[in-house]
Write a structure and sequence with these properties.
Chain B: This is ABC transporter ATP-binding protein. The complex is a heterodimer of chains A (about 270) and B (about 220). Chain A is mostly helical. Chain A has one domain. Chain A has helices spanning about 1-10, 20-40, 45-65, 80-100, 100-105, 120-145, 155-180, 185-200, 220-235, 245-265, 265-270; strands spanning about 70-75, 75. The model of chain B has no long low-confidence stretch (mean pLDDT about 85). Helices cover about 35% and strands about 30% of the residues of chain B. Classes of the chains: A mainly alpha (about 270), B alpha/beta (about 220).
């Protein structure tokens, strides 16, 4: 019988005792292979859409802007201006959607003792960040090739603003993930949060275009701050009157620590979902 | 030996916590195959899940120096949106195998479900699922000291049953079983010792016949 022949082959493979860290690496690697296959494998255009979607949105808005006769904002070419707002917002939206469903989508696999609830979360963070980085670098390389000045003036500032935005989003994602374990309909909040934020996060406008007496309507929004600070760092020509490092850091810290705490306290629940 | 140390497990219900196990202290010998006995809803599957690490105790702990399998049963363990091959790969990877092909081939040969091996598991019949679950165990069992089996052999046609039982038989020398099954005759065929669940506690019997007697005197009406 053929399966007995295989069994002899198998016994040659000796599995060493692994440390906890190695087990976690193995689990995250296994989850990553699985996630990549479901996200990009079934639809072979998956990676194409990750790049094409923000480009298409920027193109449409760029056309609208040029129809109303604007080619630049604060001396920044309109395409660069839109990309520097659109890409961080895409990161926020995608990461939040992916994280809030991370545990739910993998709950069948939590019955293996090696897999804990945080593993699918870490896996999805890695996938989203790598995708974001690739898309960001690709789009801006093409922009540079087209003759735009696409190298950020303050790389460190751009990285800091992005990192703070990521920390904030991960915290919010963990909170939503936990909320879904108590109440399944909470997944509807993800769309309810991201949709309206698209219009008030300064993707197609910036603070200097708004009269100062109305800033208070927008400046509670940490994503608005993240985008303002990204642009502030990216373009020397633009100085954000609103973007506050302190406020964004504060939001990131509060969101991340409460997200981690809630997730840790409810880790038992995820297994019994 | 599997040690149960002040183990409690409860589930939250609308009328407060429902205790399945309350303060269980036990050293479970693992030199024989053990049948778990109890009526529906008393906690047999929960016990298997707790031992297999698929669920966590509410209080206390279970520990053992032995290598215990994950719970092999019809529920859980396989992700419906993935194909059988992807499930097998996943399990091989989390157990630290870098090269998953030998295991994939072995499960594929054992399961004999043809082209469905590359279809999502959610499209399978329960018989096909049990073939995959069983095939997975067979590919890994030389690693495990104890196999946890939850009503697995209940499904499957005569041909497959014969094949899987022959294979189980073959592994007895190295691997012990802890098994849940509603068919007493099947338990008698595989197991020598018994574990009865009653009064939210566990009672171990060295001889299966004693355990069955205890079970019947407790629960028979």
């Amino acid at each position: 019988m053929s399966y007995l022949v295989h069994s002899k082959e198998l016994q040659k493979i000796v599995v060493q005792k692994r440390t906890s860290r190695q087990i976690m690496f193995d689990v995250i690697f296994a989850l990553m292979m699985r996630e990549l296959k479901t996200r990009f494998g079934n639809n072979r255009l998956g990676y194409f859409w990750a790049i094409a979607e923000p480009i298409a949105q920027v193109m449409i808005m760029g056309i609208v802007f040029s129809i109303i006769g604007r080619n630049s904002v604060s001396n920044i070419p309109i395409a660069l201006f839109l990309f520097t707002g659109m890409l961080p917002f895409k990161l926020f939206g995608n990461l939040l959607t992916q994280l809030s469903a991370a545990v739910d989508a993998n709950k069948g696999l939590l019955s293996y003792r090696q897999v804990t609830a945080i593993d699918p979360v870490i896996t999805r963070i890695i996938i989203e960040l790598v995708t974001f980085l690739l898309v960001y670098v690709l789009i801006f390389s093409v922009m540079a090739w087209l003759g735009f000045n696409a190298w950020p003036d303050n790389v460190l500032g751009l990285l800091s603003a992005s990192t703070l935005l990521i920390i904030f989003t991960v915290g919010l994602g963990l909170i939503l993930c936990t909320a879904i374990s108590y109440w399944k309909d909470a997944s509807k909040f993800t769309a309810m949060i991201t949709r309206p934020l698209f219009f008030i996060s300064g993707i197609f406008f910036c603070a200097v275009m708004i009269p100062p007496q109305y800033w208070h309507l927008l400046d509670w929004n940490p994503i608005f701050h993240a985008i303002e600070l990204s642009r502030d760092s990216f373009f020397k020509a633009y100085e954000s009157p609103v973007g506050s490092w302190f406020y964004l850091s504060f939001c990131a810290l509060v969101s991340f620590s409460s997200g981690l705490a809630l997730f840790h306290l409810s880790r038992q629940r995820f297994i019994n979902l | 030996m599997i040690y149960f140390d002040k183990l409690s497990k409860y589930f939250l219900t609308k009328k407060g916590p429902h205790y399945v196990f309350k303060n269980v202290n036990l050293c479970l010998p693992t030199d024989k195959n053990i049948a778990v006995l109890g009526p529906n809803g008393v906690g047999k599957s929960t016990l298997i899940r707790l031992m297999g690490g698929a669920d966590n105790p509410s209080k206390g702990q279970i520990h053992s120096p032995l290598n215990i399998s994950w719970p092999l049963g019809l529920q859980g363990g396989l992700q419906g949106s993935m194909t059988a091959r992807e499930n097998v790969r996943f399990v091989a990877r989390i157990h630290g195998y870098k090269n998953t092909y030998p295991i994939e081939n072995k499960v594929e040969d054992f399961a004999e479900i043809g082209k469905f091996f590359d279809e999502p598991v959610k499209s399978y019949s329960s018989g096909m699922r049990s073939r995959i679950t069983f095939g997975l165990t067979m590919a890994f069992d030389f690693d495990f000291d104890i196999l946890l089996i939850d009503e697995l052999s209940a499904v499957g046609d005569a041909n497959f049953k014969q094949k899987s039982e022959a294979l189980l038989e073959e592994k007895y020398a190295k691997t012990k079983l802890i098994m849940v099954n509603h068919s007493i005759s099947e338990l008698k065929q595989h197991c020598q010792a018994g574990l009865v669940i009653k009064h939210q506690n566990l009672f171990y019997f060295d001889k299966l016949t004693d355990a069955i007697k205890e079970y019947q005197s407790t629960y028979a009406k």
